[in-house]
Specification:
By secondary structure, this protein is an alpha+beta fold. The protein has helices at about 25-35, 45-50, 65-70, 105, 125-135, 155-165, 225-245, 260-270, 275, 300, 305-310, 315-320, 365, 410-415, 435-445, and strands spanning about 45, 90-95, 95-100, 110, 115, 200, 210, 280, 290, 295-300, 325-330, 330, 340, 375-380, 390, 395, 400, 415-420. The longest helix is centred in the middle third of the chain and has 18 residues, at about 225-245. This is Cytochrome c domain-containing protein.
């Protein structure tokens, strides 16, 4: 059962209620996400302090907390967290206390050096984190599948498929694992959770109802959690769902050329709005006026990498839909097959680089110009202003000529994004190719305002 050591929840964060008032469901959801250990610990309290012994260095780095964050792509927690980085938390471990993970491991990111709960973690190396902390605890068994092929992405779909294979429909444990079609080359970028406000469906393929509560809980499938644990925590996840639907994106913090953005808005409305919606604001203090079509674009039309679409098989969809997860109290919320990928809302898009469902395009300029996309690149995996490209909007990268050889340490190989590898193609979405350079710059200026 040691090979079960994996998992990621979902989440984000919100302010607490005003003094003397009862907290709203959204505020209770924030508190649950930032204060509750929903699953047992994976590692002892000694694993993190001793992780450096797995790094190939002769002594412990002086600023060890910063070194841990840098190596694994973690960020400072913007809430009290016992001195741990965002995404890690103290949790029960059999008869003692250990260190586990929470939702913010993947759904807690940073841009311009500031941490945000709900922003996808585009720097995470979850493969190194799980491998090295396990070894620091004296465990030598390999991970049961690849958790990440390239830094900043995860095999989140694989987690769900793998773990559900160990569960009966009522979530009691079963063995041996039922094969549901595990694929670990989907290379998923983590979406921002403030997009849930507008979306009627969830996941890149629009596969199920975005207001499903139980789908948020599927990564609680740690081998030590029981069906009673899922029932116990479901009320908290109802609040979490309300929190997700209440989130707002951070505003672009730099100057915007308003005349240029106005021209970009006209181009956007003509070229992009039919899939991504509109983003107007009401006059005279009235509520914002926006539209969002919740549109799934067929795979042969959008042309982006097909692995994520094909990598969740019908066997898993059937098993999920017939299980506790798909049978919500208010009515079934099954997984459904779709023809392609859902065009997302673009609120806060300036903060959510890299782009596409697999993180294959580092800037908005590349999104709008398929010929400008780098084929093989790396980046600093830091999130300070110096690492952010204000012109192209996204992360600064270094293009590489030579392909991966597999001769370097795996942790270094994962720092390179090679778009020729399975699940990592940067093709498709060519809708901006017919725009001139000036027109693309105008659209990008407008996108900064969303």
């Amino acid at each position: 059962m040691k090979r079960f050591a994996l998992l990621v929840l979902l989440a984000c964060a919100a302010p607490v209620g005003a003094a003397g008032t009862d907290p709203t469901p959204a505020e209770k959801g924030y508190k649950a996400l930032t204060q509750t250990a929903f699953i047992p610990a994976f590692w002892t309290t000694k694993a993190l302090p001793n992780a450096w012994k797995q790094w190939g260095v002769t002594e412990k780095p002086a600023d060890y907390a910063a070194a841990v964050r840098d190596r694994y792509g973690l960020h400072e927690a913007p809430y009290p967290n016992d001195g741990l980085p965002m995404g890690l938390r103290k949790a029960p471990r059999l008869v003692s206390t250990g260190v586990g993970i929470d939702c913010m491991l993947c759904h807690g990111g940073s841009v311009l050096g500031k941490s945000y709960v709900g922003l996808g973690n585009s720097t995470l190396d979850i493969q190194a984190l799980f491998e090295e902390l396990a070894r620091a605890d004296g465990l030598s068994a390999p991970l049961p599948f690849t958790f990440a092929n390239v830094r900043g992405t995860t095999e989140a779909g694989g987690f769900g498929v793998y773990l559900l294979g160990f569960r009966n429909p009522d979530l009691s444990l079963r063995g041996p694992r039922k094969e549901l079609g595990l694929h670990d080359d989907l290379c998923e970028d983590v979406p921002a959770w403030w997009l849930m406000k507008k979306k009627k469906t969830i996941y890149y393929t629009g596969a199920t109802d975005s207001r499903s509560v139980r789908t948020l809980m599927q990564f609680m499938m740690h081998p030590l959690t029981t069906p009673k644990d899922f029932d116990k925590h479901e009320p908290a996840f109802r609040d979490v769902s309300q929190y997700l639907a209440s989130m707002e994106p951070p505003k672009y913090p730099f100057a915007v050329d308003r005349d240029k953005a106005a021209k970009g808005e006209a181009l956007f409305t003509a070229t992009c709005a039919k899939c991504h919606g509109t983003y107007g604001t009401g006059a005279g203090g009235s509520p914002p006026k926006w539209t969002y079509p919740n549109k799934v674009i067929p795979l042969d039309e959008i042309g982006t990498d097909p692995n994520r679409h094909r990598g969740i098989e019908a066997a898993y969809g059937k098993e999920y839909s017939e299980s506790w997860f798909g049978q919500e109290p208010a009515g079934p919320k099954p997984l459904r097959a779709t023809a392609g990928y859902q065009a997302p809302p673009l609120d806060g898009i300036w903060a959510t680089a890299p782009y596409f469902h697999n993180g294959s395009v580092p800037t908005l300029d590349g999104v709008l110009n398929s010929k400008a996309r780098p084929k093989r690149f790396t980046r600093s995996f830091k999130t300070d202003e110096a690492d952010y490209d204000k012109v192209k909007v996204g992360w600064k990268v270094t293009e590489l000529r030579d392909p991966l050889t597999g001769k370097r340490p795996a942790i270094e190989e994962r720092r390179v994004y090679d778009t020729s590898k399975p699940g990592r193609a940067n093709t498709g979405h060519t809708y901006g190719d017919d725009l001139t350079g000036d027109e693309r710059a105008q659209v990008i200026e407008y996108l900064k305002t969303l």
